[in-house]
């Protein structure tokens, strides 16, 4: 009998995260999903852990739940994050503290704990959901704090991919454009669509397909997969 694979997904209660939970279940994975406000699931192979993933005790509880319930961690998708778009001089101390806590702390603690388990297993996969603005800045969307923090979770992919390549653990990133989620009001959609060469915003399914591709591509590690409607190619 095949071993049941297990995916941990942060920011898993809505939008891209909820789409990822559904996709991994369709792939046959058990899932542990986390967000600050996530409720219980009626699926026996989905466990939920509510709380702020930047809190080390929550991160520990998430990975412990995966191990206690299903015995392993095969994939971690670091999807939780915050995006604060402001001119650089308008950022506040609170903006700075929040972005570092959520985007960097929310990656660091849970990834350390997941990778420790993956190293024992001799295999694993970590995917960071970043933003294409890290590499392709746009004066229409000033977002230095996103570049500072999500840029860190993008850069660390190559570092960790090399550090753990010989131990069977892959690290990749999906770099989305602007995705049509409840975070973006309907009246902004036309403007945001125009920021992509293909002339539309991305969908949750677009991002999910990117993560699933990386999941099913065992020779791919240290990769930034752009799901950005051509923004990374130029404009």
Concise structural overview:
The protein has 6 helices and 7 strands. By secondary structure, it is α/β, with parallel strands linked by helices. A 7-stranded parallel sheet has the order 3-2-1-4-5-6-7, sandwiched between helices.
Overview of the structural elements:
This is NAD(P)-dependent dehydrogenase (Short-subunit alcohol dehydrogenase family). Belongs to the short-chain dehydrogenases/reductases (SDR) family. InterPro entries: NAD(P)-bd_dom_sf, SDR_fam. By secondary structure, the protein is α/β, with parallel strands linked by helices. It has a single domain, classed as Rossmann fold. The chain contains 6 helices and 7 strands. The protein has a 7-stranded parallel β-sheet, sandwiched between helices. β4, α3 and β5 form a beta-alpha-beta unit. The mean pLDDT is about 95.
Instruction: Give the tally of structural domains.
Output: 1
CATH fold-level label = Rossmann fold
Distance between the termini: 50 Å
Q: Helix proportion of residues, in percent? A: 40-55%
CATH class: Alpha Beta
* Number of beta-strand segments: 7
Runs in which pLDDT lies below 50 for 5 or more consecutive residues are none
Largest pleated sheet: 7 strands, parallel
Trace the largest sheet across and list its strands. 3-2-1-4-5-6-7
Average pLDDT taken over every residue: 95
* Radius of gyration from CA coordinates: 17 Å
Query: In terms of structural class, how would the helical and strand content be classed?
Result: alpha/beta
CATH architecture: 3-Layer(aba) Sandwich
Q: What's the overall geometry? A: globular
The CATH homology group name: NAD(P)-binding Rossmann-like Domain
Helix tally equals 6
- Please report which band the strand proportion falls in: under 5%, 5-15%, 15-25%, 25-35%, 35-45% or over 45%: 15-25%
Order of H and E elements: EHEEHEHEHEHHE
């Amino acid at each position: 009998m095949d071993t049941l694979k297990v995916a941990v997904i942060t920011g898993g209660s809505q939008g891209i995260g909820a789409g990822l939970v559904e996709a991994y279940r369709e792939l046959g994975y058990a899932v542990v999903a986390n967000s600050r406000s996530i409720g219980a699931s009626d699926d026996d192979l989905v466990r939920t852990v509510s709380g702020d993933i930047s809190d080390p005790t929550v991160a520990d509880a998430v990975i412990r739940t995966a191990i206690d319930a299903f015995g392993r961690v095969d994939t971690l998708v670091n999807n939780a994050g915050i995006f604060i778009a402001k001119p650089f001089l308008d950022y506040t101390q609170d903006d700075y503290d929040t972005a570092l806590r959520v985007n960097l702390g929310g990656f660091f603690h849970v990834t350390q704990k997941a990778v420790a388990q993956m190293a024992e297993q001799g295999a694993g996969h970590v995917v960071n959901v970043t933003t294409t603005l890290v590499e392709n800045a746009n004066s229409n969307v000033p977002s230095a704090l996103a570049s500072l923090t999500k840029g860190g979770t993008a850069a660390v992919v190559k570092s960790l991919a090399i550090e753990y390549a010989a131990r069977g653990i892959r690290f990749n990133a999906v770099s989305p454009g602007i995705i049509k989620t409840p975070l973006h009001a309907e009246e902004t959609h036309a403007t945001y669509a125009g920021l992509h060469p293909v002339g539309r915003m991305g969908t949750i399914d677009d991002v999910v397909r990117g993560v699933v591709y990386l999941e099913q591509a065992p020779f791919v590690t240290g990769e930034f997969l752009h799901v950005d409607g051509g923004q990374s190619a130029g404009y």
